């Protein structure tokens, strides 16, 4: 399986994401923000960082990068897409996911190992977990507060599209402790914490994040994502 990892000007976790893909057993394919196509990849990761310096709003300029036209088209065809931190912001700006990410409630950058609960395994990126599993992955953001109107939040809850939820205290004021969500089909997932920083023993808080990447690989091998 070939998983594309996009690099925008200002990306800083693209190398970590590519390493996570490799450790999961897939082939990482580096994609540049100016690429007009995805070079035949089977899934896409939008990594964390500060795309285009976070000018205007986080992810607002990245949404118009040439590569995002290809990502949006691929997502429409069912290609799995994962947005992590800044990548989550880009997915919301591109309207692949609803809502928005705003400045942390405490007006401070937060960096810590974060406990999460896996709320659903019915996505391309969480099928390898057990529903209700508690995991720990690093969190680092200044604009990580997930917001949406009440109708949207109710719809996400009712349709089982809240993918991860914060445990042990809400670090950024996200509505309903939401740490990650999916689209209606479960192929597009965005989350604020960083699973790519928890994929190898001795580096980070453990290996809980690796399952995010092995999930999409296992789905492809089983033909679920064909």
Question: How are the SSEs ordered, and which strands pair?
Answer:
Layout: E1 2-7, H1 14-24, E2 27-32, E3 43-46, H2 66-76, E4 81-84, H3 86-93, E5 100-102, E6 110-118, E7 134-141, E8 145-147, H4 150-158, E9 162-167, E10 178-182, E11 188-191, H5 210-221
Parallel strand pairs: 1-2, 1-3, 3-4, 4-11
Antiparallel strand pairs: 5-8, 6-7, 6-9, 9-10, 10-11
Helix pairs in contact: 1-5
Fold and architecture overview:
With 226 residues, the protein is of the alpha/beta class. It has five helices and eleven strands. Strand 10 (178-182) and strand 11 (188-191) form a beta hairpin. Helix 1 crosses helix 5 (210-221).
Q: Kindly state the mean pLDDT as a whole number?
A: 95
Order of helices and strands: EHEEHEHEEEEHEEEH
Number of helices: 5
* Largest β-sheet summary: 9 strands, mixed
Q: What's the shape? A: globular
Helix/strand-derived category reads alpha/beta
Structure keywords:
11 strands; nine-stranded mixed sheet; 5 helices; 226 residues; two-stranded antiparallel ribbon; alpha/beta
Task: Summarize the structure in short.
This protein has 226 residues and is of the alpha/beta class. The protein is globular and about 40 Å long.
